């Protein structure tokens, strides 16, 4: 390969890598938007100026990181329809997580190959120009990125775009803009800006509302309750929802579920409040908004409560005489579902270990959907044989990336994601058909919904668009389309209302089994956007810089909405303050940051550690520690099998980056020599997305009887012994 003029080629190769390739990739990915191209040119020109004369050992790591962010953006947008946030970036550098999430490959492998080829050409050009003096670029060239960044900023201020963030920004530019915005807000605080605006009222979001007229003349006819939660499925996938909202999305990826939706009650304007499974489950089962930003999931915070958990739907139904059951297709320990689910009232909680039948295809996260629903059908059959009414909540995992599907499905669909959705559609269609054939639907209320939305490129609000399909024995008294705005906040209240059971004061939401004459407030935080509907026809959407746009929209989810113009800064502050208030509904002081992730159950060890995520022995993930606090941890592990020694390793990660704790690399544990360890660390700044990974191997079983985590401000510490004793008393 002959490269003319080494010094000039070096500059040309760098410009091609950081400016031409990103814009070409944007076009090929279908992200075309003038602001996106402007963002790529601005960042690319800045990189050219920064790296043109820098030594290779300084330029190469920066270019590798830049390329990694581009690949991360493409993969996450393809998988779940959003750009990475800071908490996601560490996943890129965790090979085990990436292998599970991508199935060993990438959705856009060509992008990595293209960037790699561009990087190689740049490296060759530098090698050819070694020893030759590089001309200094004129100082006035720095005006180019300044003008480009300025033009982007001005366009956003004068005419904000409602296009998805990945169409308007590349990831480094977005992070830079967010940092500048945060610095500006802090500076305003230091300079003593005017008093904060009047806070928005919270009553409409936090209190339940049963003022509507009942749809059913008497308590529902159903004896049992089945809640089916489908991983990541948007509301647009159901035909009645698309038709009711006149959606321009005209694909039909789930015709079998759509066939059942034609027979049930559908709620097209159904809002998902956040991303992440544990947050969706908490909202739908406990009638409360989870964190409308990053932070410790409220399900984990609930572990510190001994009253609020009793208001959750499973606990209420259990008090009413139901047997309550939870079954998911993955392991339970990640995100502490092995502890959260019993705590909110499920008396039987099962994960991957419950299933005896083999998978139909290899899937790294657990059961494929066909195998899962076949097992779930057996579980329902067992429940039908008992005398008491039952509640069963199901959670699938098959439509989590890497979207595994059989070869014949992959051959019929353009992407693995579409194939996985089709495989799920066939599996749940067969499951519902079998329930009807066996007579289960005659006395069982069935609710089909999703935990979160993996989004749909080009569909407005797809990341917040959920669905609620209700199949009831008294279906004739229910409308086919349920008018009004609803969301996961309403599910627990709705189901208790159906069974004519008391609604705890702590639950929020309206009942899906009532009609209301007035609108209602609704809020959600997905895809980095904080969205609020005031219940009076105005929908506001605020981005990561608290720039807000106002729309005229009767409901929350709509295919189109009339743009009313930008909102003033005070409204953005009001909505942000409202979200912060809702985030603090459970914990009001750092003194409550006390967690116990240990328990008496036996845990089977693998012969070796395969995965930091799947093999985690505890569920202490995504914790938040306040600035200036100190965290103390106590761990007790013992081997249950005298014939096997266990080898235990404890690592910590903040935003998935390893945090050195000064602990031994590996600790040998036996029945006669258990592990007992205490340590602590300071939190000079706020820590978010902090996770403990307790790993073990060696065969046999172990018991993690104690994994206490207490975070407190100086002078307010509680002895670990007192905390452990109180937890033991509560669990006994």
Biggest sheet strand line-up: 4-10-9-3-8-6-7
CATH class of the largest domain: Alpha Beta
Number of strands: 28
* Domain module tally: 3
Report the sheet-strand fraction.
Answer: 15-25%
How far apart the termini lie comes to 74 Å
* Main sheet makeup: 7 strands, mixed
- Could you estimate the helical fraction of the residues in percent? 25-40%
Number of helices: 22
Which segments are poorly predicted (pLDDT under 50) over 5 or more consecutive residues? 728-732
Rg over CA atoms, rounded to whole Å, is 27 Å
| Proper CATH architecture of the largest domain | 3-Layer(aba) Sandwich
CATH fold type of the largest domain? Alkaline Phosphatase, subunit A
pLDDT averaged residue by residue: 88
Structural class label: alpha+beta
Write the CATH homologous superfamily of the largest domain.
Alkaline Phosphatase, subunit A
Overall morphology: globular
Topology:
Blueprint: H1 6-29, H2 34-51, H3 56-80, H4 86-89, H5 95-102, H6 109-128, H7 143-158, H8 165-168, H9 171-190, H10 203-206, E1 208-209, E2 213-214, E3 224-230, H11 239-244, H12 255-261, E4 265-266, E5 270-271, H13 277-286, H14 298-301, H15 313-319, E6 323-328, H16 337-343, E7 348-350, H17 369-384, E8 390-395, H18 407-412, H19 416-437, E9 444-450, E10 469-471, E11 486-487, H20 491-498, E12 509-510, E13 514-515, E14 522-526, E15 529-533, E16 538-542, E17 548-552, E18 562-566, H21 569-583, E19 594-596, E20 602-604, E21 623-625, E22 629-639, E23 646-654, E24 657-659, E25 667-669, E26 675-683, E27 687-697, E28 701-712, H22 720-731
Parallel strand pairs: 1-12, 3-8, 3-9, 5-11, 6-7, 6-8
Antiparallel strand pairs: 2-13, 4-10, 9-10, 14-15, 15-16, 16-17, 17-18, 19-28, 20-28, 21-27, 22-26, 22-28, 23-24, 23-25, 23-27
């Amino acid at each position: 390969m002959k490269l003319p003029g080494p010094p000039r080629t070096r500059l040309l190769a760098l410009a091609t890598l950081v400016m031409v390739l990103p814009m070409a990739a944007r076009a090929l990915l279908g992200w075309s938007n003038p602001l996106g191209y402007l963002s790529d040119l601005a960042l690319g020109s800045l990189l050219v100026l920064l790296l043109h004369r820098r030594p290779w050992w300084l330029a190469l790591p920066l270019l590798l990181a830049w390329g990694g962010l581009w690949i991360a953006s493409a993969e996450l947008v393809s998988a779940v329809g959003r750009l990475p946030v800071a908490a996601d970036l560490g996943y890129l550098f965790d090979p085990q997580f990436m292998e599970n999430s991508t199935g060993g490959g990438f959705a856009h492998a060509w992008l990595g190959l293209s960037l790699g080829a561009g990087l190689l050409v740049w490296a060759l050009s530098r090698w050819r120009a070694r020893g030759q003096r590089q001309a200094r670029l004129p100082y006035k060239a720095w005006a180019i990125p300044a003008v480009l960044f300025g033009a982007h900023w001005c366009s956003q201020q004068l005419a904000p775009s409602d296009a998805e963030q990945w169409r308007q920004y590349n990831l480094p530019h977005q992070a830079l803009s967010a940092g500048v915005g945060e610095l500006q807000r802090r500076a305003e605080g230091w300079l003593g800006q005017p008093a904060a605006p009047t806070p928005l009222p919270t009553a409409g979001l936090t209190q339940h509302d049963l003022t509507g007229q009942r749809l059913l003349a008497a308590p529902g006819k159903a004896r049992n309750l089945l809640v089916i939660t489908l991983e990541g499925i948007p509301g647009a996938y159901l035909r009645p929802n698309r038709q009711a909202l006149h959606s321009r999305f005209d694909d039909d990826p789930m015709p079998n579920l759509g066939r059942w939706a034609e027979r049930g009650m559908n709620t097209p304007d159904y809002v998902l409040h956040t991303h992440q499974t544990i947050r969706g489950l908490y909202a739908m089962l406990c009638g409360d908004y989870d964190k409308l930003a990053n932070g410790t999931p409220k399900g984990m915070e609930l572990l510190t409560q001994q009253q609020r958990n009793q208001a959750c739907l499973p606990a209420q139904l259990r008090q009413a005489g139901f047997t309550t059951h939870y079954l998911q297709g993955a392991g339970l320990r990640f995100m502490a579902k092995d502890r959260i689910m019993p705590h909110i009232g499920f008396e039987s909680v099962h994960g991957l270990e419950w299933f005896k039948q083999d998978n139909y295809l290899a899937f790294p996260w657990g059961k494929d959907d066909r195998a899962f629903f076949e097992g779930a059908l057996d579980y329902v059959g067992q429940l039908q044989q008992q005398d008491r009414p039952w509640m069963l909540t199901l959670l699938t995992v098959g439509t989590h990336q890497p979207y595994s599907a059989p070869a014949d499905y992959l051959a019929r669909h353009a992407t693995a994601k579409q194939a996985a959705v089709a495989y799920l559609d066939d599996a749940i269609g067969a499951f519902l058909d079998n329930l009807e054939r066996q007579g289960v639907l005659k006395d069982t209320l069935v609710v089909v919904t999703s935990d979160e939305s993996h989004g749909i490129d080009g569909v407005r609000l797809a990341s917040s668009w959920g669905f609620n399909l209700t199949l009831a024995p008294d279906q004739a008294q229910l409308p086919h389309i349920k008018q009004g705005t609803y969301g996961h906040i309403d599910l627990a209240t709705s189901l208790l209302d159906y069974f004519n059971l008391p609604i705890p004061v702590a639950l929020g939401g309206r009942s899906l089994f009532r009609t209301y004459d007035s609108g209602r407030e609704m809020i959600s935080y997905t895809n980095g956007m904080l969205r609020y509907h005031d219940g009076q026809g105005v929908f506001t959407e605020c981005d990561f810089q608290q720039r807000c746009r106002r729309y005229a929209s009767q409901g929350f989810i709509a295919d189109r909405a009339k743009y009313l113009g930008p909102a003033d800064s005070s409204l953005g502050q009001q909505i942000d303050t409202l979200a912060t208030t809702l985030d603090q509904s459970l914990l009001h002081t750092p003194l409550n940051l006390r967690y116990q992730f240990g328990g008496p159950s036996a845990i089977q060890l693998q012969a070796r550690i395969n995965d930091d995520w799947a093999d985690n022995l505890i569920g202490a993930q995504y914790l938040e520690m306040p600035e200036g606090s100190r965290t103390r941890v106590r761990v007790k592990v013992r081997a249950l099998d005298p014939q096997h020694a266990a080898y235990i390793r404890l690592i910590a990660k903040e935003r998935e980056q390893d945090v050195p704790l000064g602990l031994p690399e590996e600790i040998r544990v036996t029945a006669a020599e258990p592990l007992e360890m205490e340590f602590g660390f300071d939190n000079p700044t706020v820590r978010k997305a902090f996770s403990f990974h307790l790993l073990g191997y060696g065969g046999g079983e172990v018991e993690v009887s104690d994994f206490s985590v207490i975070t407190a401000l100086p002078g307010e510490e509680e002895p670990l012994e007192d905390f452990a004793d109180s937890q033991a008393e509560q669990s006994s």
